[in-house]
Amino acid sequence: MPVTAPKRSSRKAAKADVVGLLSRGGEGRVALLRYCVMSMTPEPVFLFLVQEYRFRPTPPGALALYDVFCAPGAVARVRSPAGLAPRDMRLTAATAFLRRQWIERSPEHPEDRVHVWTTVPHRDLFDRVAVALTQDPRGALAALARRYDPTCAPDGNLPGGKMNAVQRHFVEHVWQPVARPMLVAAGFWQISGIG
Length: 195
Known about the structure:
By secondary structure, the protein is an all-alpha fold. It has one domain. Helices cover 50% and strands 0% of the residues. It contains eight helices and no strands.
């Protein structure tokens, strides 16, 4: 009797609509953002904050987004080789200009600093990176869409239902004490309960 290979299901696994979840809001977005922090997948968190930034582009917000997600060596750097340095230096140059503006307008004594900005950053400052993230068929968002189940709790999407040691270290020693406070201080208060 010949041995036959088991039949494969013709049904394809459903892909999560990550961008849709971020846009719609509600509990689905909160669960996705919590999962992304726990799984060390910062790209959707970045995309959510870029949407918020577009409504109120401020120099502190631009610098916080750059420092947390886009700078070389950033604590939660997004994986977007086409949109970030060293391949694309435009975002680096724009944020360096904003940072120089702040430094040039600061008195010698740190306690007397006055935040005077002569330029409001463009609301589309981070759009090039966001587009690169959403259009990369092999990028982090595409991989997340294949593995994330919006019907499960955030920790239910993790292998074994809990964070591994590296993920726990990221949440407890990078996200909570460093990244999240920087973002909240820059005006992204919506992120204060995530992670």
